[in-house]
Design a protein that fits this description.
Order of helices and strands: HHHEHHHEEHHHEEEHEHEHEHEEHHHHH
Distance between the termini: 80 Å
Number of helices: 18
Largest sheet: 6 strands, parallel
Strand order of the largest sheet: 2-1-3-4-5-6
Oligomer: single chain
Helix content: 40-55%
Shape: globular
Length: 502
């Protein structure tokens, strides 16, 4: 009788084992599947060291990853074969695009973007990085308005963070929104890795202008540039003075900018507009106030409104001195003249972490690094800059983390403080919670993190690709005598207004 039951018992054990294995496989499958809700995404890979300091990251990059010799292969084009190369590239791109059109149901709206990174001669790339690395301790090196040169370069180092991520081995990269194309015909966009800000500040004036002219010739000699007129090329010109002497010749390219400045003080009419270019955040000057820090500071923010920085600025920044005159001495308001160096950074960081609101008026340009310092400090920005355009606004809703006030309202006696005091505690708490979530979008790092600024750059770029292709092809086929070429330029004045209270 025992013999009759043994096979059945054995089969039950086998069946239970198979069920356990099956459930385990299903659990593993679902647990490894990427979640759609971004609040569940990890900020970093737990097995990866993340570096957010430009100086530290650059030192590691130059020591461990930069080529040891400057004779590495580059993409320089020589001789009279350029026109043939343009035709050849055009035919290869046509074949590639036709294949994608008929095989990819979502083409040309597609991620990841495929970006070709030019291998430029080292005098435009590695040599400039080494120049910064060897001289950054010279803190006495100041601009004409008193700003530390190397700190300004760090604030505008978006060119470094994007480039280092793009050229990193795929095994070390975390972003899924962009991959590096190794053949030009496969590329959606072309990245020009010329460090325009370093060259502007650290080279002699005539030496810088000569290097700009060399870079311009090198870029515009490229077959891909000639084919599209540069419309699918990305040029980082994040400091408003960088590449200024040759900008007119590259105005069709996608510029990576700190703002638009439609007043005309920094960019000529027709050079910059939202449909073509992309606004990127400054690199914050203060350290991130993380979740633990926010939990400790949000209940202790005793200052109502804080401002520390240069209180007299030029152009659109003249609003600062008028705001200082209006607000100085008011109860709950701290306004301090900024100072350079680590002492100034520490004072700004302490002040922001003790304050409920941080005043963010225009600088010499409509934008200011102070805005991003406030965000990563958990201090609600009060933006007084009528011409300001913001980074990644196609993705991020800044109304959830900042207060927008028109200059005319902010200068009315007593208006701004009464306005801020009337904002409900519930809304303040909600904005503080949103700041905690949004900080990650403004922290450049190596390796670049999902939902960090580098990632959002490429997500925003994906929305431009179809329009870029349209204008590139249209420019290639428009004949002499046809109607004026459409630029689809949209540059209405961006006048901010104060939102209603909740």
């Amino acid at each position: 009788m025992a013999g009759k039951h043994f096979p059945r018992s054995k089969s039950r054990i086998l069946l239970c084992g198979l069920l356990i294995i099956g459930f385990s496989l299903v659990f593993c499958l679902f647990s490894s599947y990427p979640l759609r809700n971004p609040t569940h995404l990890q900020f970093t890979n737990p097995n990866t060291n993340v570096e957010t300091s430009f100086v530290t990251s650059l030192d590691h990059f130059l020591t461990h990853k930069a080529p040891k010799f400057s004779s590495a292969r580059d993409d320089t084009v020589h001789g009279e074969a350029q026109d043939d190369e343009v035709t050849k590239l055009d035919n290869e791109i046509y074949k590639m695009e036709v294949d994608r059109l008929y095989s990819d149901p979502y083409y040309p709206v597609d991620l990841p973007l495929k970006v070709y990174v030019y291998n430029m001669p080292s005098k435009f790339t590695y040599d400039l990085l080494w120049l910064f690395s060897k001289t950054y301790k010279e803190t006495s090196n100041l601009t004409s308005n008193g700003s530390p040169v190397h700190r300004l370069i760090e604030q505008h180092s978006i060119d470094y963070w994007l480039w280092v991520d793009l050229i990193a081995p795929e095994s070390e990269r975390l972003l899924k929104s962009v991959i590096r194309a190794h053949r030009q015909e496969e590329a959606d966009l072309f990245y020009v890795p010329f460090f325009t800000t370093i060259s502007f500040f650290l080279l002699e004036k005539q030496q810088c202008k000569a290097l700009y002219r060399e870079a311009l010739k090198w870029i515009t000699d490229q077959p891909a540039w000639k084919r599209s007129g540069g419309r699918d090329h990305i040029i980082p010109v994040h400091h408003p003075w960088s590449f200024k002497s040759v900008r007119r010749a590259v105005k069709n390219a996608i510029w990576l900018l700190p703002d638009m400045d439609s007043t005309g003080n920094w960019y000529k009419p027709g050079q910059v507009f939202l449909e073509k270019d992309l606004i990127l955040p400054y690199v914050p000057n203060v350290d991130l106030c993380d979740a633990k820090c926010l939990a400790e500071t949000n209940q202790k923010r005793s200052t109502l409104l804080f401002l520390r920085g240069r209180l007299k600025r030029n152009a659109g920044g003249k609003i600062r001195s008028r705001l200082v005159a209006e607000l100085s001495g008011a109860d709950g308001v701290i306004i301090e003249e900024g100072t350079a160096g680590e002492g100034g950074k520490a004072a700004a960081q302490r002040g922001m972490r003790k304050s409920l609101y941080c005043l963010s008026p225009a600088g010499d340009t409509p934008s200011s690094a102070r805005l991003f310092d406030a965000i990563v400090s958990g201090c609600i920005p009060v933006i007084v800059s009528d011409e300001l355009e913001l980074p990644f606004e196609g993705i991020l809703d800044y109304r959830k983390i900042a207060i927008f006030v028109s200059s005319s309202d902010a200068l009315k006696p007593g208006w701004l403080l009464n306005f801020l005091k009337g904002i409900s505690p519930a809304r303040i708490k909600e904005m503080q919670q949103n700041l905690a979530k949004y900080s990650r979008h403004f922290l450049y790092s190596s390796p670049a993190q999902p939902l960090g600024p580098e990632d959002l750059v490429w997500r925003m770029m994906a929305g431009k690709v179809v329009n870029i292709k349209l204008h590139s092809r249209r420019s290639e086929r428009v004949v002499e005598g046809s109607r004026s070429r459409c630029t689809c330029e949209c540059r209405p004045s961006n006048i901010t207004t104060a939102p209603g209270l909740s």
